[in-house]
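B., you asked whether I could sanity-check this one before it goes into the benchmark set. Here's the sequence:
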Amino acid sequence: MRLALPARAVPIAAGWPLGAAALALIAFTFLLLPSTPHEAGPASGAIARPTHPLTFFDDQAFTQALSRAEATDPAPMPGARAVIVPHHWLAGHLIVSSLRDLAASGDYRRIILIGPNHINAGGAAVITSDLAWQTPFGLVEPDGDAIRQLTSDGVALSEPSVLTYEHAIAGIVPAIAYLLPEARVVPLVLRSDLTSTEVETLAAALAPLLDGETALVAAVDFSHYLPVQQARQSDRETLEALQSLDSPRILSFSNEHLDSPGSIAAVMETMRLLGTTEFELGENINSGDLGGPALAPVTSYITGYYR
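And here's what the prediction gave me:
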């Protein structure tokens, strides 16, 4: 399967990921703007449709990720219900190969995309959006019915502006458009202080959505700010928790283990409700392995899936 980038994909918007300070400044500035959503250019006489603009896409990084993913054959994920991918595009080939392998595993028409709310923006623990997403590969549509159910039940709050500038979601949507073009999305970002009760409530709402055409994708990066050896030790501890579905242990972790304990805990609790208990590890590497300074603090990446 060749994953060549179509000619229509041209460099758009700034590259990602952004530093935390820059991301916070952009998001804060955006939230100060009037709340009128970005509108796609309509056909003559048509009513403009609000969409998320393309905010996190780098043509070169995406092309490199596709090229590196081509070096390995697709590895289907039999029975996959939930997949863990990075959101840091230094490890973009892991994002691409994981979504490629998911696409090779079944006819997935809905992706529940979950990740950190890096700057804890918005007015609720769980934030979502019912807007479509602009990408170089066409619009990615939301699953409006599922999103309305989550918001009407009080599980999530719809604040599109928060998701527009959250790279854990906005940076992954173009890859979904390319690799799972028929899939609608249910995007969710979680605050860093999500409680075990909020995790259980979210899992109870997500489990009924996990039919045979739906997969839960958690876009999470793992150990931050540690030297390589300490990062590897943190990853070993995290992998133990992933294998045993130990969500209380995950929730006790900080950035030294992962940047969104709530996202992974919500995946675990959803899997527990579905009786899906087996975790299949894909990759565990760090930014030093990918050309970053090996002696400096690194970011680590874990991929895999629950079945």
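One thing to flag: The chain has one domain: 20-32+49-306. Otherwise nothing jumped out at me.
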